[in-house]
């Protein structure tokens, strides 16, 4: 998505995301869950729609508090499906609720969602996609790839000549900590 470095700067929504979030490492479980959910919601839509609705998603899903979302029942599903401020897609909403429960189990087994991700790093994208498809609902290649790039586990968010790349380098994201040949797909 290196073209993003050309179009995002100065844009009302893409600019702040490009400059302070995209590719920067995340370690808090609720923030990782939030990003995964936003990527799921984006499927088939533009990222701009998601960025414009981001605050509404955060409010609707109670700051992506994993335990709260995992406990959602029919009342909460209906609330979400009737909330015009978010994407009202039943499959996506059901996947998010299901995935919150999966993350609870990962937290029990690994101490945190972040630890589970770290325990599988590094992998090439194709291996990550297999793992995510086996573990979560609604996580195909694009969703998994964007989630992992946007959280620092796969390269590709910023070109080296992008001014943000230097800031990103200082955070030493996980993908920069390993032999880069792991990311070359055959």
UniProtKB/TrEMBL annotation:
Q: Which residues cross the membrane?
A: none
Single annotated GO MF: DNA-3-methyladenine glycosylase activity
InterPro entries xrefs = Adenine_glyco, DNA-3mA_glycosylase, DNA_glycosylase
One Pfam family name is Adenine_glyco
Query: Which SUPFAM superfamilies does the UniProt record give?
Result: DNA-glycosylase
Q: Which residues bind Zn(2+)?
A: 5, 18
State the superkingdom. Bacteria
Recite the UniProt keywords alphabetically: Metal-binding, Zinc
Quick one: a GO biological-process term for this protein?
base-excision repair
The protein depicted here goes by the name DNA-3-methyladenine glycosylase
What organism is the protein native to?
Answer: Candidatus Terasakiella magnetica
What are the top taxonomic ranks of the organism? Bacteria, Pseudomonadati, Pseudomonadota, Alphaproteobacteria, Rhodospirillales
């Amino acid at each position: 998505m290196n073209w993003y470095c050309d179009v995002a700067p100065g844009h009302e929504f893409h600019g702040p995301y490009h400059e302070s979030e995209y590719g920067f490492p995340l370690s808090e479980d609720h923030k990782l869950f939030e990003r995964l959910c936003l990527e799921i919601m984006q499927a088939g839509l533009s990222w701009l729609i998601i960025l414009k609705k981001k605050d509404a998603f955060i409010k609707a899903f109670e700051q992506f508090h994993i335990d709260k979302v995992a406990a959602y029942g029919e009342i909460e599903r209906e609330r979400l499906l009737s909330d015009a401020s978010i994407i009202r897609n039943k499959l996506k909403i059901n996947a998010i609720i299901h995935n919150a429960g999966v993350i609870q189990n990962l937290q029990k087994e690994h101490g945190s969602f972040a630890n589970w991700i770290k325990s599988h790093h590094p992998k090439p994208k194709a291996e990550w996609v297999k793992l995510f498809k086996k573990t979560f609902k609604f996580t195909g290649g694009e969703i998994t790839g964007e989630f992992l790039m946007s959280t620092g586990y796969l390269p590709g968010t910023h070109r080296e000549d992008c001014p943000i790349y230097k800031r990103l380098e200082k955070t030493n994201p996980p993908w920069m900590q390993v032999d880069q040949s792991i990311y070359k797909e055959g």
